[in-house]
Amino acid sequence: MANSIDGYLQQDIECEGLLECFYGLKELDLVVFDELAEAEEALTVDEVAERVDRERSTAYRSVRRLVDTGFVEREQINYDQGGYYHVFTLTDPDEVADELNRMLNDWYAKMGQLIDQYREEYDQPAVAANG
To answer: For 70-126, where are the alpha helices, taking DSSP H only?
Structure first.
């Protein structure tokens, strides 16, 4: 029942549960998110990989999913002699909350339409028992 709306409403959901619920993030993504949240400065993928004890490619995929969802921002740092690297930080929580609200409102409107369709389709006049 945990996968049903009713099941979710009966559970105690933490903030990170929103990320998982809205975007289907994996457990590692949530761990990476927490590490970025706790970091005092932006982290490279190598630093993330070290903190979560995973290979660089695995950490990169998780960071990439977080960037794609908008929870994490990527900044390019240029070397003076040429070349660059990227660092990652959490997106402003207000921006994320606004996007989550937008998604929730869109979902609510869509569910409302589906409920109306259900009502129209199944709201048939009762057939008299004595005909």
So the answer is: 93-122
